[in-house]
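Protocol step 4 of 6: record predicted structures for both targets in the notebook before any analysis. Target 1:
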Amino acid sequence: MAIVGSNNKIKLAVLISGRGSNLQAIIDACAVPKFPAEIAVVISNKPDVFGLQRAEQADIPTQTVDHKSFASKAGFEKALQNTIIPYSADLVCLAGFMRILSADFIDHWPEKIINIHPSLLPKHKGLNTHERAIEAGDKAAGCSVHYVVPEMDSGPIIVQKQVAILENDPPDTLAARVLEQEHLAYPEAITHVAGNILKNDA
């Protein structure tokens, strides 16, 4: 793992697969001088996504590791690992990264990978969370930032944000309200995790 620099900030590797709205929330948070993290690199498993443009506009290094270029998941993950390592990241942040990582990859980063999921975990792991919350008759939906463990969407929760499910709420409207909370939750979770890393490295 990296040795935290004298500027008292941890280094982030942010992994994306798309437009990068949560990435933008992290970029904006890192622009605040007292925020305890900085983005060392943004890595996408898909070329030409808008999230890469967001990073480039903020003068953040970008890399693409296209999963379709590899014959196996193991080959992709080895390349991904080798792309992250030179940037000395203290924390890997999955921000709309749409690949399930293997236990072998996760074991390289014990308690150093976090993810955001659009439900109030442990409810509604996996996909189509907003539709499922509405169909279940839930009174509330939300998002969870959690540590990544080999079992999908099952790691310890760091931060949760909740929104009410309104009568006749369509999934896309609910999703938009939850996304607003995601943009608050992710920087909050990074602040919490950074505090632990900085304390342990002190």
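Target 2:
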Amino acid sequence: MQTINVREARHNFSRLLNAVESGETIIITRKGKTVAKLEKVTENDLQLYFPDRSTFRAGLPPSSAPSSELIRDIRNERE
């Protein structure tokens, strides 16, 4: 793991990305305090954070009116 300050990170960003790509973790500091961590992204990191909601949606009752009409009614109530 390598620690680097913000100024040096700005000037050497391509080099840092190459290091991260090869598996190294980079800690970036500002005024001696840690502010960021650069690490390689894995396929697991790219997965959706929200669970599948298709079962939930299928259980909802059908709407009696189109959504555009419902939104128009809500907007008209504000006036």
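Step 5 preliminary note on target 2. Residues 17 and 38 are 8 Å apart (CA to CA). The first helix runs from residue 6 to 11.
Proceed to step 6 after PI sign-off.
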